[in-house]
């Protein structure tokens, strides 16, 4: 199986995603919040590209979630902290969500054969999904405003490590190889290392240390959020 890691959302070349399983990785914080929401009973997430599209799309009974540049949006029910999406409020709800990098990256992933959302919180579940589909995979790091983000890359390295762990032949691109080594060197101290990344540092300075902790738990949840027909639903893997 071939694994291609793409460093950020503005580095997708035509046809890279076709016929592939695409994993959209935005550890801080959109992927982690989406995984948390579906694990806590949200019925679906509708990703929106802009704040005004999100507002237009939200029908009665739906929740609005997201941020711009990390800040809460006027009139939105939820921001982008995983703990917002762990609240009883989300149970049974459809959430229209727009974030600075994560939902934008997701919308760019549309050409993938299957598009799922991954992070540390559901790493093993994502790997089971990739294995079952048996397609080559693209690990699409969201990054931050057109730049690579360390935490997304280290999560990609983590997925590669899990894919390798049952002895399967996995051929990663050069970026994937280096991120795999990067993951191995920090995996026992993720918080210590990833709070120094640009996004980690930004969240720390905003007093959101709790978000970092919540995003860096390995395999807290077993759901695979899958984007299909404009909505993200929880996909349960057959045993
Ligand atoms: O709120 C976040 O964590 C980020 C915004 S920023 O890059 O920190 O300004 O959004 P996301 O789309 O989850 O990367």
From TrEMBL:
Magnesium is among the record's keywords: yes
Name of the protein described by the UniProt record: Probable 2-phosphosulfolactate phosphatase
EC number of the protein: 3.1.3.71
Catalytic activity, reaction form: (2R)-O-phospho-3-sulfolactate + H2O = (2R)-3-sulfolactate + phosphate
PANTHER family named in the record: 2-PHOSPHOSULFOLACTATE PHOSPHATASE-RELATED
Hydrolase is among the record's keywords: yes
Entry cofactors: Mg(2+)
Lineage: Bacteria, Bacillati, Bacillota, Bacilli, Bacillales
Family to which the UniProt record says this protein belongs: Belongs to the ComB family.
An example Gene Ontology molecular-function term: sulfopyruvate decarboxylase activity
InterPro entries: ComB-like, ComB-like_sf
Keywords: Hydrolase, Magnesium
């Amino acid at each position: 199986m071939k694994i291609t890691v793409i460093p950020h959302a503005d580095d997708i070349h035509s046809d890279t995603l076709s016929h592939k399983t695409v994993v959209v990785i935005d550890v801080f914080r959109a992927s982690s919040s989406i995984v948390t929401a579906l694990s806590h009973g949200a019925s679906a997430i509708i990703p929106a590209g802009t704040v005004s599209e999100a507002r237009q799309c939200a029908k009665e009974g739906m929740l609005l979630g997201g941020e711009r540049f990390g800040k809460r949006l006027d009139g939105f029910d939820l921001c982008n902290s995983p703990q917002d999406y762990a609240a009883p409020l989300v149970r049974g709800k459809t959430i229209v969500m727009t974030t600075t990098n994560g939902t934008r990256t997701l919308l760019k992933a549309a050409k993938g054969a299957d598009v799922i959302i991954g992070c540390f919180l559901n790493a093993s579940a994502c790997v089971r999904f990739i294995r079952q589909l048996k397609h080559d995979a693209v690990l699409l790091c969201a990054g931050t405003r057109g730049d690579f983000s360390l935490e997304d890359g280290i999560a990609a390295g983590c997925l590669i490590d899990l894919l390798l762990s049952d002895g399967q032949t996995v051929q990663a691109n050069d970026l994937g190889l280096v991120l795999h080594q990067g993951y191995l060197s920090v995996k026992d101290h993720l918080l210590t290392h990833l709070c120094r990344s640009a996004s980690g540092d930004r969240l720390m300075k905003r007093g959101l240390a709790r978000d970092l902790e919540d995003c860096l738990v390995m395999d807290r949840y077993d759901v695979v959020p899958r984007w299909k027909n404009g909505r993200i639903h929880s996909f349960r893997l057959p045993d």
